[in-house]
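[09:14] KT: can someone run the structure on this one? pasting the chain below
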Amino acid sequence: MFLLGFILGLAVGIGFWIWQQFQLNRYLERVLQPYSKSTDLALPLLPRVRQEIKTLQQQRQDLQKSLQTYQDLLDFAPMGYLQVDEENQLLWCNQQAKEILYLQRWQPGQVRLLLELVRSYELDRLVEQTRDRQKPQTKEWLFHPSSDNPAELPTIKSMTLRASGLPLPNGQVGVFLENRQPLLDVNQERDRSFSDLAHELRTPLTSIRLVAETLQHRLEPPLNRWVDRLMQEVDRLISLVQGWLELTQIEANPKMQLHLEPVEVRSLIVSVWETLEPLAQRQHLSLSYSGPEDIWIKADQARIYQVFLNLLDNSIKYSSPSTNIQVEAKITFFEDHHQDNSIHPTLELNLIDSGTGFSEADLPHIFERFYRGDKARTHSSLADNSIGSIVGNGLGLAIVRQILLAHGGSIKAMNHPQTGGAWMQVILPEVVANSQSQDYS
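[09:31] RB: done, structure tokens below
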């Protein structure tokens, strides 16, 4: 009886063990099903499990090596990089970011909000915008570093930073940081050097012109033609020096250079055209104006006159003979979100010629100083150009852009689809009066 009970218990135990093995095999089959294509199905189950575990361990090691490689590259990169989680807590940053943002005391593993470590609301706002919009965002601002050590404060200088945010999975955001201050310092030093040189050149150039004027009245033909050429080149150099000084002054302090007063736009354009009409008549060019009459803007009349003088002079230079230069004016309205969503009128002026236009490669650089662009639009002005006309020096459009920016306006260069010539679109925001809409041509 005892033996029968033992055998029965043994049978139940063996059956239970077999059932457990069967259940374990079914579970392992389900777990290993995604990897069945990359394994040998003929292998026994436990060796397969060991092989898969070994494969996963190798993959983990490879991923860790790749992650370490990328971190080493970012740490060695000349650009700062930091990464925050979904709660804006700093996860990691490279050495450049530590130096730019004064994060030398922060160590990986510390749970701190980025705003606590870096007192920059612009950087925090960039991170939020990148996460909300799920698109790369870029921002440039003046960063004022802070330090817990009062002794370091006198040695800490503000710097211009440019940051680019990149959305990452799980709400994380990566930010690339670039310290723009060294480049800006170099540009400022270059501008100061050029301005100093321009100031030094004005006196000798004026002296040379006085000598040339004296010789011009004393020499007889054909020798005097050489003096005439000398006068033209000296005037070109004087115009270049004066243009550079004017441009640097406007860039340094644009608002202080403006004497704002009501200016009637159409009368101003007509006055500019009358000044340039002797040049236009040589190529049989005409001017047509279309748009509202009696448009008044609040502007510096001398500066705005200079804008249209430069633009129309360029149109005359590069227009084909016996063509028309068009000036189209219209009033548009925009909603100012910074002042109670009020509606403000804006003047849009389109200057269109029928010349050669701009090449696509030149368009992004039209308003850069000393940029001359395609030879088709950079030939000198007429061979018999008078002394009073504008001599091209590569600064005219740069000055135009700075004057318009100082007025809160803008300018855009395009090619007109119908005439094929240059199309300058000028925007001026300070419209103070507008009556009697009428077309003129």
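[09:33] KT: thanks! The radius of gyration is 36 Å.
[09:34] RB: yep, looked fine to me
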